Amino acid sequence: MENILVWEKESLKNKTQKTNPHAGGHSDKQQTTNNNNIKKMEETQWRELAYKKAFDGMIRYIQVHREAGKGFSIQDLEAMLQTEYDRDGLAWDGRGEVVEIGISARIAAMEQELVNWRKELNAEQAK
To answer: What pTM was estimated for this model as a whole?
Structure first.
């Protein structure tokens, strides 16, 4: 995903360079439009990267604790998820977009792993 975003940024940068009016390209308006496109991509890119980092980090955390042994149970994961639901519901003023993204990503990761864990338990019980 990061490679695609870098490629898109470079592609837009190249278009901007090609439309430099001093090089016989398009107008200043076209160059401004291209610069705005780059800026918009950068503004959304950090959100995607922040979400992915928080999501992947929580997945790794859960997997490491599950693999470590009996010290981490499905009830522990359910309690962690409930804590994140509670935290999300508090909606503190001034919490900021970065924290909101992190909470959403961790909730999604925990929900996913909880569903997977329950499927594993059901499959084991069915044997």
So the answer is: 0.65
